[in-house]
Amino acid sequence: ACFTLGGLDCSISFVSHVLGKVCVQGRQKEMLGVLVPRLTELTRSDCIWQRMCWRLLECVPERWMEAVLLGFLQTAPGADVLSRLLGNLAVKNKKAQFVLTQKVLLLQYSHKTAVLQNLLGYLSLDPLRRPLLVKVLQELLETWGSSSAVRHSPPEQQLYISKAILICLSHVKESEIESCRQELLTSMMEGVKCHLDSNLPRIRRLGMIVAESVSSKINTDGPVLKFQYEEDDEARELKSLLVQTSPCCAVPSLPDEEENEKAAVLPSASGSGKESQTVAPVVPAEESDTELDSDDDLIPYDMSEDKELRTKAPLYLRDCIEVLTGCEDVDKWEATVKALESLIRKNPAAAREVSVELAKLLLHLEEKTCIEGFVELRQRAQVAVLTTDPIPVAQYLTSQFYSLNYSLRQRVDILDVLVLAAQELSCPKSQGKTKHSVAPKPGIQLLPGSDSSKDWRRIVDERIKSKTRRIATGQAQVELPSGPNEFNSVAGHFFFPLIQHFDRPLTTFDLLGEDHFVLGRLVHTLAVLMYLAVNTVAVTAMGKALLEFVWTLRFHTDCYVRQGLLSCVSSMLLSVPAERLLEDMTDELLETQCWLGDVVEKDPDGDCRRLALQNLLLMENLKKKLQIVPS
Amino acid sequence: MALPPPDPQFVLRGTSAAVHTLHFSCGGQEPDVPILFSGSENGLIHVWNLKTRRVDTALDGHGRNSVYCVETMGSKDRLLSQGRDQRICLWDLAEGRMSVTDSVFTENVGFCRCSLLKVAQRRWLMAMASKALEEVQILELPSKTSVCTLKPEVGAKLGMPMCLKLWQLSCGSQPLLLAGYEDGSVVLWNLSMGKAMSRLVCHQEPVMSLDFDLEKTKGISGSSEKVLSIWSLNEQQNLQAYKTHGLVNAGISDITIRPDKKILATAGWDHRIRIFGWKKMKPLAVLDYHTATVHCVSFSDHNQPSERLLAAGSKDHRISIWSIYTQA
Fold first, then answer.
1. Could you say which of A103, A317, A468, B218 would form a disulfide bridge with B232 (CB–CB 3.0 to 4.6 Å)?
2. For the whole model, what pTM was predicted?
3. Where are the beta strands (DSSP E) in B144-226?
C-alpha cells in the first residue's frame, strides 16, 4: 500500500479499519508480512511516517485492536522497531494497554519467546511506558506466586510466565523497583514455596530459577538465593533470557563460573595425585657412617606399587551387622557397605536368619563417610535382603511404611525397594543358564536409583504398544528362556499391606493431606506391583482392591497422583485376565470408563489426558478380544 | 628408571594346605638333588625335589596336626619337625626310609618354633618352649637330656616365648639364646649360667620372628605392628636398640637374613615379601605374588652363589621360589 504524502490531517482511519478487519479475519501474516517491513523502512528516520503509523494504529476500532496488536507483536523484528511503529499506544489507548499488559501476558500462553521479548522490550524503551513495565513485573510475580496458579495451571503456562518475569527483570533498573521491593520479595517467597512443594521436577526447577533471578536483582547488596538443580536446555534458555544486549543488566553467569571453578580444581587435583604416586625409595639420608657401603651394589627394584593394604570387609553377615551398628573404624565401615550386597546374595541361608534385622539396619543406615554411590549401595543391599527372604522382610517394610517418625526419604526408599525386588523376583533368572545366545531382553530394565515413575511409564507404554493391533507385521520376537515367577507367592504380601492404611493419618504422616508427594509415589508403586503381578494367583483380588483405591482418590488435586492412578488402571487392565475383568468387575469397569471419559475431556494436565485415552483404548481392545475369541 | 620387581622363578603347588615352614637342603654334592622341606597345616611334610620341582615324598608324622617347624640336622637325611600335636619328631630319611626315629613330647601348645645349634659332632642343642608358660627348655639331642630351663624372674611378665635363636660366637664358646616374647621384648640368655643377661623392649606387640647376624652382632625382629626393630649387642653383651624401620602394612610372620649377610627377607601379613639390604636396611624390593598371608621365608644354602634361592610359603597353599640378588 502506498500513501499519498498529503498533509498531516489526511484520514487514515479507513486504512485502520481495513487493517483491523483483515487481522481479525486471521490474515495477519499476509497483510503484516508486507506492511511491517515497509513501515519499518519508512519509519526509520522519518518522523512523519512514524506519526502516521501511530495514528494508523490508534484508529483501529477496539474490537479489532487485539488481533492487530498480536500481529504486530509477532511480525516485528525487534522491540525497537515495535517501539517506532506503536509509539506510546500502550499509554494512550486503554484497549491496547489491556491487551499488552494483561491479556497477552496473563491470559494467553501460546506465544513464542520472541513475542515476549518484543512486548517487554517495547515497554522498556520509553520513559512514559516504563511504569507499565514495573506494574507488569509486579502482576506477573503475583500470579507466579499464587499457589492455586501453581497447582492448577498447565506447566506450559507456568513456563511462559516465568520467561516473562525473567525478561522483565532484564529490563528494569534498580531505581524503578526501589519502591515496590518489599512486595516483589513477598511474592517471590510465597511463589518459591509453592513451586518447591510441587511434585513435578520441572515446576520445582522453574521456581528455583526464577527465585534465584529475582533475588539477585532485588538483593544486590546482600546474600542471594542459590539453588542446585539440573541444567538442561530449558534451564539454559531461561537463564539466557536474563542477558540483554543493553549493558545495564547484571548477568548472573552461574554456569560459566561453575565451569571455571571445576577447571581450576582439576589441575590441582591431578597435580597432587601425581605427587603421591612418585616412587619413594630414595636412599635414606646417610648417617655419619664411614664404612664402605657394599649395599650400593644392590640396586633396588621399582616399589611404587607397594601401597597400604585396604581393610578387608568382614566375611560373615553377622560381622557385617556388628560393624554397621557399632564400629568406629570408618575404613571397615566403608568396606562393609560395599561388600554387603554380594555377601547377602552369596549366603542366602545366613541372610534368611538375619533378614529382618538387616532390613531394619539398612532402613536406618545413614551415610557415615563420603562413599561414592552410597544411596545405590544401600538400596541394592535392601533389594538383596528382600529378594532373599521376601515374606518377613516385606511384612516388616510395609508395616514401617505406615509407622510414626520416618522421614519422607525413608518411606520413599521402602517403596522403591519393594518395586525393584518385585521386578527381580518376577523376571526369570536367565544369567548363566542360557545355552543359546539370546538377544538382550527387549523390555526396558529399571536401573536402581533412577526416577522410577518415568521409566515405568515407558515400560507400561511398551506393553500397551505390544497389545495394540498393528496393521504391518513387525519382526517376530526371540523366545526368551523361561523360569518360575518367584513373585507369584509373595505378590500379595507386597501389595495389600501398602493399600491397607492409606486413609489413616498419623501425627507425622498424612497421605491424604500434606504428604501428597509420598501418596503419588505410593500410587505409582502400586501400579508397578500390579503390572508385575500378571499371571499370579492373587491378581484378580489385587485388581479389585486397586480399582477401589483408585475410585476413592480419583478427584485428587495433585496431577502427579492422578497420573499414578491412571497408571494403576493401565496396569490393572493389562495384568488381570480379560475374562476375570469382564465377569467379576463389570460394574466397576463401567464406572471407570465414565470417569476416564471425563478425564480425557476436562483434566488440565496433558499427561493425564493421554493416559486416560490409552486406558479407554485398552478397554476397547479388551471387549473386542473377548468378542472375537469364542468361549 | 627402576625395574619392575621380578617374578618367581617357579612356584610349587600341591601341598593343599597353608604352608607354615620351609627349609632348604641344597649343599650336597652331585648326584644329590637340591631339596626343599615344607611343613603344612594338614600335618604333612613335603620333600620337594628342586630339579624336577615335584614332591618326592610326603611325610606324615604329626597325625594331621599342623607342622610349624622343620630343620635338618647335618644332612638332608636327618630331619627334625615340630607340630601342633605337641611333638618334635626326628626323622631318618636315608635310603628312602621315612621313619620317625625319636620324638620329644614338649607339652607345649603354642606356636614357638624350636631352634637348633650344633655344638659338636653329632651333638645338638635345641631350645624349645616348654610346658610352663614363660619357660624355655634347652635339650641336648639326640640324647634328649635337659641342659637347662630358662625361667624369667618373677614379675617380669614376658608372656609366652614367641621365637628363639640359639647361637654361639664361635665353635666352643658358650652358647647363647635370643628369645622374643609375647610382651614385645627380646631377651639374651646365657645358657651355662641359666640366667638372662639383657632384655630390650623392642615392640609394643608380641615379637613374631627374629634373626641375628653373628658377625656384626646385630639382630632384627618383627611383630604384628608396622615396625621392624633392629638392635645390636655391645661388648658387655647388652642389647641396645639400634634403629627402627617403618613398614607400609602391619604384620610380619617371619624374618630371615641370608647366609652371606647381604640381604634379608620378611614375610608379611599383607601377602608381600620384602627384601632389604642388611647393612643399612635399604628397601630393595617388594615381591607381590601371594594372595594370602606369607607365613615363612627361607634362603637356600647353595654352594654356588648364583644358584641361591629364596622360598616363601603362604596361607594360599603355594610356595614361591625366587632368584634375587644372586650376583656374588
1. B218
2. 0.50
3. 145-150, 161-167, 176-181, 185-190, 195-201, 207-213, 218-223
- Specify whether the CB–CB gap between B83 and B67 falls below 8 A: yes
Residue A492, pLDDT above cutoff 90: no
CATH code assigned at A334: 1.25.40.720
A308 CA to chain B: closest CA distance, Å? 6
Q: Domain with A140 in it: what CATH number?
A: 1.25.40
A513, exposed or middle or buried, with CB in 10 Å at 0-12, 13-18, 19+? Answer: exposed
What average pLDDT does chain A have?
78
- What CATH number is given to the structural domain containing A591? 1.25.10
User: Exposure of A435 by Cβ count < 10 A (0-12 exposed, 13-18 middle, 19+ buried)?
Assistant: exposed
Best mutation target, A309, A311, A312, A329, to test chain B (most B CBs within 10 A): A309
Domain that holds residue A533: 485-628
Q: Which residue has the cell 517491513?
A: A37
Of the three residues A241, A260, A294, the one that is the final residue of a domain is A241
Contact A200, A207 (CB under 8 A): no
Cell readout for A619 is 478397554
Q: B281 CA to chain A: closest CA distance, Å?
A: 9
**Count of structural domains, chain A:** 3
Pair (A220, A96) in one structural domain: yes
Please name the residue that has the C-alpha cell 504398544: A465
Is B228 in CB contact (< 8 Å) with chain A? no
Half-sphere exposure of B127 (CA within 13 A, CB side): 27
**Mutation site, A301, A304, A311, interface B, largest B CB count within 10 A:** A301
Same domain, A495 and A411: no
Q: What contacts A624, CB < 8 A, 6 or more positions away?
A: none
Residues in B touching A294 (Cβ below 8 Å): 262, 279
In percent, how much of chain A has pLDDT > 90? 4
Please tell me if residue B75 touches chain A, with a CB cutoff of 8 Å. no
* CA–CA separation, A448 and A233 (whole Å): 26
Domain end point (choices A178, A210, A241): A241
- Tell me the per-residue pLDDT of B184-243, one tens digit each, with 9 for 90 and over: 999 999 988 888 999 999 999 999 999 999 988 899 999 999 999 999 998 888 898 999
Which grid coordinates belong to A119?
512486548
CB atoms A306 and B279 under 8 Å:
no
**Is A253 within the bounds of a domain?**
no
Verify whether the Cβ–Cβ distance B282 to A306 is below 8 Å. Answer: no
Amino acid, single-letter form, for residue A119:
L
- pLDDT for the residue numbered A264: 40
ipTM of the complex: 0.77
The 8-class DSSP code of residue A107 comes to I
